[in-house]
Amino acid sequence: MSEPTSALRLDVYKTYKLFVGGKFPRSESGRVYEVTDRKTGEWLANAPQGTRKDTRDAVSAARKAFGGWSGATAYNRGQILYRAAEMLQGRREQYTAEVAVSEGLTAKKAAPLVDAAVDRLVWYAGWTDKVAQIAGNANPVAGPYFNLSTPEPTGVVGVVAPQGGHGFSLLGLVSVLAPVIATGNTAVVALAPGAPLPGLSLGEVLATSDLPGGVVNLISGRTEDIAPTLASHADVNALDLAGIVAEEGPASAKDLEVAAADTLKRVLRPEPASHDWTTAPGTDRLLTFLETKTVWHPMGM
Amino acid sequence: MALFDYAPAPESRAAAGDIASTYGHYIDGEFVESTGSEALKTVDPSTEEVLAEFAQGTEADVDRAVAAARKAFTSWSALSGAERGKYLFRIARIIQERSRELAVLESIDNGKPIKETRDVDLPLVAAHFFYYAGWADKLEFAGYGPNPRPVGVAAQVIPWNFPLLMLAWKIAPALATGNTVVLKPAETTPLTALRFAEICRQAGLPKGVVNIITGDGRTGAALTAHPDIDKVAFTGSTEVGRAIARTLAGTTKRLSLELGGKAANIVFDDAPIDQAVEGIVDGIFFNQGHVCCAGSRLLVQESIHDDVMDALKRRMSTLRVGDPLDKNTDVGAINSAAQLARIQELTAAGEAEGAERWSPSCELPSAGYWFAPTVFSNVSATHRIAREEIFGPVLSVLTFRTPEEAVAKANNTPYGLSAGIWTEKGSRILWMAGKLRAGVVWSNTFNKFDPTSPFGGYKESGYGREGGRHGLEAYLDV
């Protein structure tokens, strides 16, 4: 005799959580906020409302991870980014659904954006061991010295994920995050508050790609809590304000740049909200969060 | 007569050429009077004698200079790179021709020894113009895209420690890439910049491409806040750098900053001590220690601390402090009364906090601003003299036991401009160089500069690079 099969089976919902230090914590505040379908307004999930404290914890994790990640071989970083592309490819359906509800697109329109995100990871995976060859230099100084300039990662980079533009929710996020970590920086990302699901799920891809914990930290919540915390944090070296949309107030580019000036953070200014993230990225972002180190070696017998 | 006592060998002050009693600004190809009436004085810091009066630039003066640069930008940026380059080659040649004059003038206005202006500053100034002159028609090959464009009008504010060299670092790449500039020299050292204006005229440089405006920080603030500039390039204190970054927040203006430093000069137990001591001395007493990349924190491996200190003190005792125009002088005058006061304040703090102070006995002139070469031992990382930039001939000595400890101590600063490593072991040099968070690392040498070699800092030492291919980026719309 077989068991009677139930006509009804409930889906298992995912509890979306932050990604900090390689783990998936809830917000220390215990608070969540409702994420809704961009088109229908239907409830989708309760996302953690990351706080200033969560952000500071993420900065600590990113700082802790910096030595290992910046010291890893470029080949190794490339392998891991390629692995992330593989993992993303394998979850194509899931991300297509998340991108669709995040950006108000049909699945048919969302799927190519996920494919583009996979391809973008592959593009950056290939860059890791080439950056030094296009950004470095042997300098012919007028003296008996071997003089070499090489790019090094800036450090901990605070990233405000794109909040608009075609493909912003996953492709846009990957487009700002991948160049930061490809060159050996570590990142704390303020996810788009209205569309955090692809970003929160990206943690699951990164966690299964051999990416050391803390290299990428993903925080959902209010941009006006997270971004100013990053801008004023003394242990953050640079900011990518890609997703900043506020014209004034604590989450405006102006206020964040003023806060960043206290520790002379390198700042990349916001992208226009209409930016099309499917356009070819070029090397701008890749070369932004680098420091040029020049070493003089005497030559002699 | 002591060993190695020399008869005075002064360079002729007359070689500096005529110094006018008063100077206006250089705007749109002409020397013009300020719209304001306030004048400042520049003095010879070795005698306190007034050399000239010059204008305190007003907002109206800044407006006028920026307008001239804006107007000139249209035709200058449209000029072919080859022609722009030829103007820069002309300027480089004229600097070479007039280098003795400029060296003497610089030494008089700044207080630095003639052997430095003659053998370091001026050759580097000319070389910098030559280097960037050659880039002007090759920009599409520099790695910044197929059609790199200039940024526009650059506001440039420079310090007093290498007045003409800093001018060259600012103006040469800016002009090569098709920008026009308004440059403000420091208020204690305006003379060589004003003399450079004459060189621009001799070179036939189109009007308004280079504008020189004088004044103190108020003029600099007006210039960097001007709405019609496209870029600010600043070399100076970290505090002012922060203020400029705040001023430009929320705009589309570009900014490059070369700020303070507190460099570690690290000596391992296998280093040849005499050679290292020469590097230590060069690292901190070159240019009276008025060097942002000065090796102001000496980190000595514990086992050789006493030997290094003995050799260092012996060497310091032979440094000749005095008349900047004497060709034998090693250490000249402190640039200003204000800077001398800061050095005195910080060294007093060093003593008060328990570090051990030592200077060779040396006779200092009665007039002028002077400070004897000074070394502090028993310095701990928390002392002010180990953390704050003194910008004077004062060395703080700390010790370490292992390479890891040396790296940790060297990086324990918000600055990150430069560092030095002294060891015979090649693999250790490369390992150390990789770990040090500093923009310039000198191994078994110190304070070397070259126009082809990018210079600039990590962390709070600023951002952007000057020199080399990298130095183009700050002036290109990339």
Explain the overall architecture.
- The complex is a heterodimer of chains A (301) and B (478).
- Chain A is of the alpha/beta class and 301 residues long.
- Helices cover 42% and strands 17% of the residues of chain A.
- Chain A has helices spanning 52-71, 74-90, 92-103, 107-127, 131-135, 168-182, 197-207, 223-232, 253-261, 284-288, and strands at residues 32-36, 43-48, 137-138, 145-153, 156-160, 186-190, 216-219, 238-240, 266-268, 290-298.
- In chain A, helix 7 (197-207) links the parallel strand 6 (186-190) and strand 7.
- Chain A is globular and about 90 Å long.
- The model of chain A has no long low-confidence stretch (mean pLDDT 97).
- Chain B has 2 domains: 13-259 and 458-475, Aldehyde Dehydrogenase, Chain A, domain 1, CATH 3.40.605.10; 264-443, Aldehyde Dehydrogenase, Chain A, domain 2 (3-Layer(aba) Sandwich).
- In chain B, the strands form 4 sheets. Chain B has a 7-stranded mixed β-sheet, with helices on both faces.
- Chain B starts with 21 loop residues before the first strand and ends in a 15-residue tail after the last strand.
- The interface between A and B is large, with 35 and 43 residues.
What's the topology here?
The complex is a heterodimer of chains A (301) and B (478).
Chain A: E1 32-36, E2 43-48, H1 52-71, H2 74-90, H3 92-103, H4 107-127, H5 131-135, E3 137-138, E4 145-153, E5 156-160, H6 168-182, E6 186-190, H7 197-207, E7 216-219, H8 223-232, E8 238-240, H9 253-261, E9 266-268, H10 284-288, E10 290-298
Helix pairs in contact in A: 1-8, 2-4, 3-4, 4-6, 8-9
Chain B: E1 22-23, E2 25-27, E3 30-32, E4 39-44, E5 49-55, H1 59-78, H2 81-97, H3 99-110, H4 114-135, E6 153-157, H5 163-176, E7 180-184, H6 191-202, E8 210-212, H7 217-224, E9 231-235, H8 238-248, E10 254-258, E11 264-267, H9 273-285, E12 297-301, H10 305-316, H11 337-352, E13 356-358, E14 374-377, H12 384-387, E15 394-400, H13 403-411, E16 418-422, H14 426-435, E17 440-443, E18 462-463
Parallel strand pairs in B: 1-5, 6-7, 6-9, 7-8, 9-10, 11-12, 11-16, 12-15, 14-15, 16-17
Antiparallel strand pairs in B: 2-3, 4-5, 10-18, 13-14
Helix pairs in contact in B: 2-4, 3-4, 4-5, 9-10
